[in-house]
Specification:
Elements (H helix, E strand, L loop, with lengths): L3 E3 L1 H8 L4 H17 L2 E2 L2 H12 L8 H11 L9 H14 L3 H12 L4 E3 L8 E2 L3 E4 L14
Parallel strand pairs: 1-2, 1-3, 3-5
Antiparallel strand pairs: 4-5
Helix pairs in contact: 1-2, 1-3, 3-4, 5-6
Length: 149
Amino acid sequence: MSRVFVDTNILAYARDRRDMHKQRIATAWLAMLARERSGRLSWQVLTEFYAVAMHPRKLAMVEDAARADVRALQAWNPIGPDAELLETAWSLQTRYGFAWWDAMIVAAAQKAGCDTLLSEDMQHGQIIDGKLTVIDPFATDAPKVTLPP
């Protein structure tokens, strides 16, 4: 499988007990990506996830559990911010009209060499620069991934 960049919302849904349908889908995707070692993310995604995980009205996770998730996901070799990433994000923001943080996500996905970006927050099916396809894993026509038995 090609490399797949995972946005913050997918990580959050994997831990969100308030929406079991989305939790199952997110968990299946993350398990498959971990098994195939094809998942990618950025430090931005990890820090956003930690903030959502610790927020009392969002995931309200126990601190140790949230930190353990972030530590485990560091094995995915997160993309860090640098001058090249900023320049790419500015270009994407201008050309596609992305919000700033979305432009940073897309730039990181491109830098990681991903073909797919899993995100609920961007336009499902959008192809960016002819190389990166946005997939909303919760869309009815999204590729289906199931947990192994």
